[in-house]
Amino acid sequence: MVIFIKCPIPTFIKLVVPIYLFLLMDTNSQKEYFSYAYVRAVAAVAGYSVEEKSRPMDNAGIDLTIEAPGDFLSKVDAQVKCTASTNIIKANTINFPLPRKNYDTLRRESLVPLILIVVLVPDKLTEWMTISKEECVMRKCGYWASLKGEPSTKNKETVTVKLSRKNLFTPDNLSKIMEKINNREEL
User: Fold this and answer.
1) Under DSSP, is residue 59 helix (H, G, I), strand (E, B) or coil?
2) Looking at beta carbons, which pairs linking 28-36 to residues 24 or more positions away fall under 8 Å?
3) What's the confidence (pLDDT) of residue 162?
4) Helices (H), the chain
């Protein structure tokens, strides 16, 4: 149900504004939720569960934990970012400007492996997803990288992280990540 509010500005202009326009979340929040949904979809197809972290953990640089149900060893923590920027897409890499704080978190040693997932979306929100009777399509895709062991930086604000375009975040690649974790291999 749509509720309309009539705002009498001058009498010769009748401005009708749908109330739902005031209830929508901002674009950055939409990107955050969409990127989490993308990770959840990939994990579900691969057979893993996803836990969204609390605000304190998010502030500490961990957005989601992906794990195998019943297997306490196969677990990875992820910082998830989303962007519609096309100038970061290069021939072999996605050159993402990561906040320095997140870079430092992701490059450190950790008992649970840490990865960065960057989800790319079209510029127009209406193109992020289409649904029909035959398919549900999320656009565009995500890439992942482990920053463990990366060097410290003198940058104050951001660090450009180069994610290989070979590291597409797919159900098959997530299974390979989890297999490496289970075998105690480096990502």
Assistant:
1) helix
2) 30/125, 31/82, 31/83, 31/84, 31/119, 31/121, 32/80, 32/82, 34/82, 34/119, 34/121, 34/128, 34/129, 34/138, 35/80, 35/81, 35/82, 35/117, 35/119, 35/121, 35/142, 36/63, 36/64, 36/80
3) 97
4) 27-46, 55-59, 100-107, 171-182
Confidence (pLDDT) at 13:
41
Q: Please, which pLDDT band fits residue 153 given cuts at 50, 70 and 90?
A: very high
pTM: 0.86
Structure tokens at 107: 């490059």
Domains of the chain listed by start with CATH number: 27-182 (3.40.1350.10)
Give the amino acid at 175: S
Two structure tokens written together for 108: 């450190």
Residue partners of 72: CB distance under 8 A and separation at least 6: none
Q: Which amino acid, residue 54?
A: S
